[in-house]
Design a protein that fits this description.
Layout (H helix, E strand, L loop, with lengths): L4 E3 L10 H6 L22 H15 L6 H6 L9 E6 L5 H11 L4 E5 H11 L1 H8 L4 E8 L3 H16 L3 E7 L2 H4 L6 H7 L7 E6 L18 H10 L3 E6 H8 L7 H4 L3 E9 L5 H16 L3 E6 L8 H4 L4 H29 L1
Helix pairs in contact: 2-4, 5-6, 13-15
Organism: Brevibacterium salitolerans
InterPro entries: ATPase_AFG1-like, P-loop_NTPase
Protein name: Cell division protein ZapE
Amino acid sequence: MSDPQIIHLADIDPRVSPDELIDGLVPPPQFESVSFASYRPDPAQPSQAQARDTLEEFAAQSGSGGRLFGRLFGGRKGRSKGVYLDGGYGVGKTHLLASTWHANQKPATFGTFVEYTNLIGALGFLRARDELSQMKLVCIDEFELDDPGDTVMMSRLMRELTDAGVKIVATSNTLPGALGQGRFAASDFLREIQALSDQFSVISIDGDDYRHRGAPAPPEPLSADALEAVVAAATGTLARDPFGSLVAHLSAVHPSRYGRMLDGVGTVAWEDVDTLTNEGVALRFVALVDRMYDRDIAVHNTGVRLDAIFTDAMVAGGYRKKYLRCLSRLTALAQKGREQAAEAQVNAV
């Protein structure tokens, strides 16, 4: 067994060219092999199977419209150029979005709302629009309504892309404080983005967070000695950082480069995790966890348990859904870390 490569994320400041940003708009490693066939809808939630079937037909079409769309959306055959997929966190929206990308004709792009706004920032709106207009499909994960400026800019982009004949599928990430219990309201969406009302069909997916089935809370934090044992038993590349140094470093790296920071990393080990009290710092950390989840990176930590990483006021505030999604993903990654550690112990016997 080869020795692990230990790196420190706080030492990494990657550079990414605009062209690399375009080329990088593909499903992340965790979703590089998913399909509609591998999606497992909850039998108790028929909206999940309906969403899968709708998107599967949508991906198979060379243009917009179709029989299923006509049935679902009151005869709007030929009008819907895109689908807006609404649902709580952990119901499989990203799985379905990536499945649509895989099944659709290429070229196509896949990225989060933030990755597309980063692209516009790097290229400028006109060049970003022109590049994306060459695509047959644009997939936008975690569409956010918490920044009016970004929302208007992305609304314009989506409208101009659909006018150019590009199909779009987006998933929602909305403010629960405005929309109630974390659920998306079509009327608010259409009021916010009125020009898209004739081009997009809203599909709601119900269900519970699949990541919490069998793992309702993050594992307890490790002792310092236990963390040392994890590091010693690691294989591949492990990123080890004092938590305070890591989150401080994030302010010096644009979020568009967080994914590049994590290239090749299979495991992270955080020392002395503490509750974040600054919302700007917390939101940058959320962006990092999103990229970690994309890459299915196992998490180990000392300090506080990971569900105490945000203050109660943050979780109850305007960015509630962002924090809840982050906690859900951290739970899954920490559970993966514990499973890895248990397997390593068995192999060592």
